[in-house]
Amino acid sequence: MIRSIWLVARREYLGYVSALGFWLGLILTPLGLAVGVLVPGMIMKAQPARYYAVVDTQDSLQEALDWQFESWQSSDTKMMLRQSLSTTSPAEKRRIINVFEKAYAEGSSPQEALDKADAPLHLKASPINFHPIKLPNKSVEEVEKILTSGQTFNGPVGRHTLFAAIIVNRDQIGNIASVDYISPDIVNSELKQAVTGALKYLARLELFKSVGVTPTEIRNADADIPSLFVRKPGSLEPNENQSSEVTLTDRAPFVAATSIAIALWLLIFSVVNFLLTGTIEERSNKIFDSLLTSVSVTDLLSGKLLGVLMLSATLLCAWMLMATWAALYADQAISPAAWEFAQAALDPALILPALAGFLAGYLLYGAVFLALGAMCDTIQEAQALATPLILLLTTPLFIIIMALQNPASGFVFIMSWVPPLTPFLMILRAPLEPPLIEVLGHLALMLVSTSIALWCSIRVYRAGAVNGFGVKEIVSFFKKKTMGKSKL
């Protein structure tokens, strides 16, 4: 029996490995993932400089916009500073961040505040991508003509076209009555958000001014706001009287759990498709008859599952070797904080549930697709049956996306006990360190549900492979039942 299963598994494995599609998937999948990870950051860093103009008889809105953009720059810079200090002691980290915040609140620019903070790494403040261009007071028609004509203007970052114009309409006493935002770009909303923030800032200034508070007094008050540090209980640092602040490294298990769950979903549904197409090809070409003269139906099904499982292991090992090589090659370019993040993400408490979830999910869905393939003579028949099934099986992906923000919710806990979702949601809940009884319950549920799926699949597989029972016979059966009832 074991020899028969091995021979079938070896036949399946060698058949897939020798195909060109396997090697394309082996190479293109990590490249696609790398592009998906790196390109968004590259796009954000490569955002073009944009010029805008404020057409107004006063300078208050322009000054408020300058404040808004500098405030965003300060927030982004402080976040970058916190990440760079992940390996610094809590006391030193507090000192550096306090110096940065106080320097900025006292009037320094974000870059000047960084220089005063004297961080261990030389950092540059986040750039501002929107720059004001002075336009004389023009009518709306003239401004729209400039926006659509492609006219360029000299500015702090070279010569560019006008991205947007902000027309300020004031009442008779000089207050802002309304603001028109005009731009040919209807997608980018960053500048619109800045205008909204600037208007709110002006409204607050007017309110403070009415009670005798000056902008200088407001900024001095901002300088006295205490810094906020998010800590986790316990884990006191040596020679320190407080525990370390929560960093991206502490969130690494949750990021890794989400990534692993999505990656396993993609991998499972990539390899089980091999089972479907391979089974249909063997049935349509009458290869089943030859195979079943040498092995039993159970051995044939088990061998197919083992062969594609070996294929999956080959893909995973190859991708892990590529990732290891890339990490060693980029060793000098990766910061210590990034290495800490990677080490926290590779926690055995995540890897072991991931392996168990993949094995259970693969066997469960693989058995379903094998049974489906054994009932179909053509790819068209399989597509007709697989379409509603695939729509149902995409549910785990939607649940994973919903569970990203709150994996500890009661809804996620309840859905984790639904067998088709258990392999994925068990991984998402692993960073929460669930009680042992929950872990054992999930493992028992996956074992029972996978066993039932395999048991049913063997019987459906036998009916399709040996007895030729398929989609046409099912349709004929229901037609007879329907026509019989209509005659009555």
Automatic annotation (TrEMBL):
Q: Which InterPro entries match?
A: ABC2_TM
The cross-references to Pfam families, in alphabetical order and at most eight, read: ABC2_membrane_3 (PF12698)
Q: Which UniProt keywords apply?
A: Membrane, Transmembrane, Transmembrane helix
Main localization of the protein described in the UniProt heading = membrane
Q: Which residues form the ABC-2 type transporter transmembrane domain?
A: 242-458
Q: Which residues cross the membrane?
A: 20-43, 254-276, 305-330, 350-372, 384-404, 410-428, 440-461
- One GO MF term: ABC-type transporter activity
Database matches in PANTHER family = ABC TRANSPORTER PERMEASE, ABC TRANSPORTER PERMEASE PROTEIN NATB
Q: What is this protein called?
A: ABC-type Na+ efflux pump permease component-like protein
